[in-house]
Design brief:
single chain, mainly alpha, two-stranded antiparallel sheet
């Protein structure tokens, strides 16, 4: 975990985009040019850190919602593939096999997106 020296915000694995980090650094440079008491600067730093933490919590909540929806779609999709369980004992039409193949491709893409979101969710650490 690395710590942003300007704000004290701990980031992990590029949690904040490069553009976000650049913007925050630009804000700090501009604030440093102002003649403000140290207390004001510290309060602004705390406010920026609080906003960043709020954004992380908001993103985390959104990712959890999306992962739950993706999981439900995966469960539903797999339930439609029960014909494949007995493919050796049961004759499937060519069209049925093509349809199942397309369904599996769709579910694989959905599973991949879900896995990427889980990895992103893993990078968001919430401190108490």
């Amino acid at each position: 975990m690395e710590e942003n020296s300007n704000t004290g915000l701990k980031t992990e694995g590029g949690l904040l985009s490069r553009a976000d980090r650049d913007l925050i650094e630009q804000i700090h440079r501009e604030l440093a040019r102002l003649d403000m008491p140290c207390d004001c600067k510290e309060e602004l730093d705390r406010t920026i850190v609080a906003i960043e933490a709020w954004q992380m919590l908001k993103r985390r909540k959104e990712l959890i919602r999306i992962v739950q929806e993706d999981y439900q779609h995966l469960v539903s999709g797999v339930s439609f593939l029960t014909d494949l369980e007995n493919i050796g004992q049961r004759k499937l039409s060519d069209q049925d096999m093509r349809d199942h193949a397309e369904s599996l491709k769709f579910l694989a893409d959905l599973a991949d997106r879900c896995a990427r979101r889980l990895n992103e969710l893993a990078t968001i650490t919430v401190s108490d």
